[in-house]
Each structure stands twice: as C-alpha cells, then as structure tokens.
Design the sequence.
C-alpha cells in the first residue's frame, strides 16, 4: 500500500496505511466494538501531485471481499450482494472525518448504531436475540 | 489469605477443567491398548499446552485483547481467515463430541438412551452460556470436574508398584501384536487430545472477559504451571486405571461405560457415582468452552462486540453464532453417529489444525508492539520453536496414518 | 479460461480422492485370500472376546460392590452392541473359497452363542434383577476361554 497523507483530524499525518489502519479494530463513541477497518477509500487529490488521500474507512463483509484474493474474494462479494436486502449494496462507509484517534484501536466519534445500515447485527438482534427472554440483561 | 484462596481456586479450576471427552476417551483407550507405552506423549502434550497457554494469556492480559482479534491485524485478513475456518471446523467437531459426551454421561447415570439426552444437553449448555456469569461458570464446572480425582484414587489402589510404572513409561516400545503405524497414530491422537486448540482461544478470551490486568499475570502463571500438570496427572491416572484393569482382560475402549469400569470395579458404588459426576462436569464444561470459543473466534475476526459481559442485545451476532452452533451440534449428534468415533476424529483433526493455531501465538508473543518488554526470552522461544516442529510433524503425519491404520483399527 | 477449468477439475478430483480415502478408513472390504479371511475372523473373535470380558468384569464388580443398575445395564448393553456389530460385519463377508467356509462356520457359531449370552445378560440387567447376573458368570467365562482358543487357532500358521 502507498503512504497516504491523512486528510482529516490527525491532519497531515503520513502513515503506512497497511500497518496502521487496515484490519484494526474500530471503537465507537460508547466504547463499544464497531467492526474492523476492512478496506479504505482512497481519493486522488484534485491537483497534479498524484497524491492519494484516505477519505473513508470501509467496514463490514461487503468491504472485505475485494481484499481477499482471487476466487475467494469474488465468491465472498457475490454472497454479500446476494444476501443484502438493498438493490445495489454498498459496504458501510465511515468518513475519515469522524476518526478521533489512531492507535491499536481506531476510535470514531459516532455511535455504531448510526453507522450506515448495520443490517446483519440489526437482523440478528431483532429476529433472534430479542425473542429470547433475558436478552436485555448482561449475565453479570 | 484471600489471595491464597483465589489462587487455589484458579488451580483447582484448571485441574478440573483440563480433561474433556477427548482426554477421557484417548487416555482410556491408549491405556487399555498400549498400557504405559504412550505415557510420554501426555507429558510432551502438557509441556506444549503450558508453554503456549502462558504466552496466549500474557498477550491477552497485557493487550486486553484476545487471540483472533490480534491475529488478523498482525497476519492479514486472508491468513487469519484460513486460521479461523480451520479452527472453527475443528472446534465445531469437538463441540459435537462434547455435547454427545454430556448425553453419554447422563445415559450412564440413568440408563435412558443418550440420543434422548442430546437435545436437553445442548439446551442446558446454551442456557448456562446465556444466563450464568463467566467466573461462576468456570468455578462451578472446574470444581465439579475435580470429581475425576477418583481415577487417581482408583489408580493408587490398583497399581502395585509405581516404580515399575515409571520404569515402563520411561522405556516405551511398540507392544507385540501392534504395528508402528498404529502406535504413532495413537500418539498423535493423544497429543491432539492434550493440546486442544480451543483451549487456547478460550483461555485468552476468558482473560479478557474476566478483565485480567498486569497484577493477574502471577495468577495466570500459577494456574498454568501448577494446574495444568496436575490436570495432566489426571489423564495419566485414567490411563493407569485402564492399563491395570482393561488391558489384562484384552478389552478395548469403544464406549464411555468402559472408561468408568476400572473405578467401578475398584471403588464400588460411590466411586462410580463420583466418576459419572466427573464425566458430566468435564464434558459439560468443555461444551461450554467450545461453544463460546466458536462465538469468540468469529466475532473477534470481524470485530463484532463479543463476550458474556455484554447484554445479548448488544452482542447479537456473537450469541447467534453460539446458538446456531449448539443447534447444529445437537442435530449432528442426533443422526446417531457414534460419539466415540466423532471424538476420535475431533482429536486427530485437532492435531492437524495445531500449527495454524499455535504459530500465530508464537508470533504475537515475540512482538514488542503488543507486549513491550514482556516478549519471549530466548529459552522460551527455543522451546516453543521445538514444539512447533513437533506440532507440524504430527499435523502432517496425522491423516496419512489415519488412512494407513484404518482409523487405528 | 482453460487453465481455470483444468484447476477446477483438479480440485474436484482431489476432493473425490480425499473423500474416498477417508471413507476407506472405516470400510471392511471383501476377502480375497484365505489368510485375509482368517485375519478378519480373528479380529471379529477378538472384538467379541473383548465384549464378553467387559460383561464378565462388569458382573463381577456388580456382585462385589452392588453397582447401580443403570450403569450396569448400559455397560452390558454396550457390550452386546459391540459383539453384535462385529458378528454382523463378519457374517456379511464373502468367504473366498470352500476351505474358508469351515472357518466361517466355526466363528459364526461361537460368536453367535456369545452374542446370545450377552443379550441375556443385558435383558436381566435392564429389568433390574442384578442378582440374576452372577449365575451367568460361569457360562460367560467358558465362552471367553473358547473365544481365546479360537483366536489362537486363527492366529496360528494357516492350515
């Protein structure tokens, strides 16, 4: 992966995206786990400098497909397209603007419930887990 | 004083939780067929699991993150996915065996056919995962598992001279009437039973669940360095019992009922009852651990919220994985597939999956980014690497030997 | 395109081969030679002897310690199941020649007697009449000795 200057909050930071961003755990504003950095959205700069900016983090099964090699990756993406309720499903996109800090965990400044349509978690919660008594209590 | 109690509790839990259906069947079967000629494998296996569990526990304690969580960012999504799929396949096979094991233990106590117990066993396992606190769950089943000490008592009564046993164990050979391929096949099976992959995932996730900190490193070490060897001693006790009672009679172990026979013959009604309690606790505890491990590994790979500390509604996918896994495990068990055969396959395939499981742990334990100055010393690395070579050799030889010996027949 | 089709075929072939190999690990094939048939007979006799010995040990223990009936009935049921399965498997093997017919007859007869004895023990245990088990010991012990002698004969140099 190329060295990409971060455009937003940790402004002007040049990092090795492969090491410091990809596959890192995302943590939301409630301190809850919010998925992993499965892929990155890179946007070329407007000018002639041939610089790529990381404009968003892509997360979720839809984002992981392109990063898995060959046939596995294609099958993965095809399965995601098939199972997703939307017509042309997109991976969850988290604009880099909400990234609060980097590190072992990437902290974002919004709640995970607002992250696009977290369909799988939502579906599982509503159709399976909520139906079972005691689902609202932690077993602690 | 409170510290002493807590450490003792940890050790007892480690001992009681060490043995699962794989260990019960493997040690009993090997004792009946090879007497003490494969005892050395148990010792080697214990050494390996102590070494690697301590590493995984250290990583989890210092980073507050569990194995699969870190494996993906360190080794990349593709390799971690391969790791995940292989580990899940083996752990799932183990889960089927453990749930069937619970049902078998209940059958031995009630004479009601084990197939009728399978749905209830799976449901009970799920219920405990759903409702019972993590620490409480570990304590209860760990302590109940101590009932298996009855095998040590029986062994003490049965063995006339431990000096002779040590002599036999330290001079292993392939017994007359058995071929070398069969000997090594059972060696690998025993090794896979001792070094079960799920144990490590569970241990590291448990460390995070229980919120271990730097201060707990000592407890971690005590559990592992004292608890595991004693747990291994239980395995050897089971092996000794069948070596003394079943081997002379030419009885091979094909059923869980035969595993209890030496205790029943030596210690009578009470001993038998305690042994059956031990069977139940060991298999139930292991079913809890394997079920949770499946949830842990998937959730940690994808970065989903996980753990029993969360309300289930906040970790819906994690709980859904555990629920579905238990349902499918029960369904497979209900096909009346032979539970002992499933157990045998689960331990042999565990041996095959061992390199995938253990190699990342060694990598992480050497990474200063995660452990700071607590990375492995040179001696530990040397030992761990030697073990990795043994693990790879066992993994490579497992399936060819299985085919060549027709499943150890 | 061609290379992908070829690699897909290779993967399919490997999958079939692996499945076949794994299936083989639990298969009993037909017997082509006389000595192979004797060996299979010997294995059957060994398995049945193990089952009979399990029953003997179980009944002895019950006699001495008055063990729980539930456990004893499962132990004996398992033993009967093992012996019965071994007997069925052997009965289904085609003997390669007429001399092997004699081996087959002798083995089947003794094995059948053993399975019957184990079934009797299982029935008694299931009923909870544990005291009725002890009188069965002499018969079971005789069967065990006969099975051991037959196994030794089968092991010996081929007739």
Sequence:
């Amino acid at each position: 992966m190329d060295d990409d200057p971060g455009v937003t909050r940790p402004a002007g930071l040049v990092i090795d995206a492969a090491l410091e961003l990809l596959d890192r755990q995302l943590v939301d504003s409630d301190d809850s786990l919010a998925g992993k950095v499965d892929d990155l959205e890179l946007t070329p700069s407007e000018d002639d400098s041939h610089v790529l900016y990381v404009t968003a983090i892509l997360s979720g099964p839809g984002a992981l497909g392109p990063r898995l090699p060959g046939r596995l990756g294609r099958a993965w993406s095809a399965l995601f397209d098939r199972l997703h309720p939307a017509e042309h499903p997109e991976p969850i996109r988290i604009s880099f603007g909400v990234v609060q800090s980097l590190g072992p965990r990437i902290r974002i400044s919004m709640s995970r419930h607002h992250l696009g349509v977290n369909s799988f978690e939502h579906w599982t919660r509503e159709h399976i887990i909520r139906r079972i008594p005691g689902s609202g209590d932690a077993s602690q | 004083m409170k510290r002493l109690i807590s450490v003792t509790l940890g050790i007892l839990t480690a001992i009681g939780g060490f043995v699962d259906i794989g260990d019960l069947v493997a040690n009993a079967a090997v004792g009946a067929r090879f007497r003490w000629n494969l005892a050395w494998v148990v010792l080697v296996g214990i050494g390996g699991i102590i070494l690697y569990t301590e590493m995984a526990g250290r990583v989890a304690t210092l980073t507050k993150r569990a194995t699969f969580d870190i494996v993906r960012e360190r080794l990349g999504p593709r390799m971690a996915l391969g790791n995940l799929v292989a580990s899940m396949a083996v752990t799932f096979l183990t889960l089927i065996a453990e749930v069937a094991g619970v049902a078998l233990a209940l059958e031995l106590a009630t004479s009601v056919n084990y197939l009728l117990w399978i749905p209830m066993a799976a449901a009970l396992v799920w219920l405990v995962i759903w409702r019972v606190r993590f620490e409480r769950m570990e304590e209860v089943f760990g302590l109940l598992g101590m009932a298996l000490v009855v095998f040590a008592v029986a062994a003490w009564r049965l063995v006339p001279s431990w000096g002779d046993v040590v002599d036999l164990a330290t001079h292993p050979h392939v017994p007359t009437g058995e071929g070398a391929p069969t000997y090594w096949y059972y060696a690998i099976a025993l090794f896979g039973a001792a070094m079960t992959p799920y144990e490590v995932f569970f241990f590291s996730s448990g460390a995070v669940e229980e919120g271990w900190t730097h201060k707990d490193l000592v407890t971690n070490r005590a559990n592992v360095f004292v608890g595991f060897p004693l747990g291994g001693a239980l395995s050897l006790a089971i092996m000794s019992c069948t070596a003394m009672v079943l081997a002379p009679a030419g009885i091979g172990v094909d059923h869980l009922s035969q595993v209890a026979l030496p205790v029943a013959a030596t210690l009578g009604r009470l001993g038998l009852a305690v042994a059956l309690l031990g069977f139940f606790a060991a298999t139930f505890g292991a079913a809890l651990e394997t079920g949770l491990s499946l949830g842990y590994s998937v959730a940690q790979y994808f970065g989903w919220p996980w753990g029993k500390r969360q309300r289930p509604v906040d970790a819906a996918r994690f709980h859904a994985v555990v629920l579905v896994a238990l349902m499918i495990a029960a369904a497979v068990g209900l096909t009346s597939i032979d539970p002992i055969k499933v157990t045998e396959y689960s331990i042999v395939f565990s041996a095959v999956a061992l390199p995938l499981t253990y190699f990342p742990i060694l990598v992480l334990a050497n990474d200063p980014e995660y452990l700071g100055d607590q990375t492995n010393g040179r001696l530990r690395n040397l030992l761990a690497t030697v073990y990795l070579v043994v693990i790879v050799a066992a993994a490579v030889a497992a399936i060819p030997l299985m085919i060549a010996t027709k499943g150890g027949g | 395109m061609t290379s992908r089709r070829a690699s897909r075929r290779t993967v399919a072939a490997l999958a079939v081969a692996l499945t076949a190999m794994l299936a083989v690990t639990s298969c009993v094939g037909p017997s082509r030679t006389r000595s192979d048939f004797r060996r299979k007979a010997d294995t059957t006799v060994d398995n049945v002897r193990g089952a009979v010995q399990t029953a003997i040990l179980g009944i002895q223990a019950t006699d001495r310690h008055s063990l729980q009936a539930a456990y004893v009935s499962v132990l004996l049921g398992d033993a009967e199941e093992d012996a019965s399965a071994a007997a069925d498997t052997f009965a289904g093997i085609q003997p390669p020649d007429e001399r092997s017919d004699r081996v087959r007859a002798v083995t089947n007869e003794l094995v059948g007697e053993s399975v019957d004895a184990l079934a009797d023990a299982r029935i008694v245990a299931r009923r909870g009449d544990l005291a009725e088990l002890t009188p069965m010991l002499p018969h079971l012990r005789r069967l065990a000795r006969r099975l051991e002698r037959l196994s030794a004969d089968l092991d010996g140099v081929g007739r």
Q: What stands out?
A: Residues 1-11 of chain A have pLDDT under 50 and may be disordered. The helical segments of chain A are 17-20, 61-64, 70-83, 119-129. Chain A has one domain: 17-122. The longest helix of chain A spans residues 70-83.
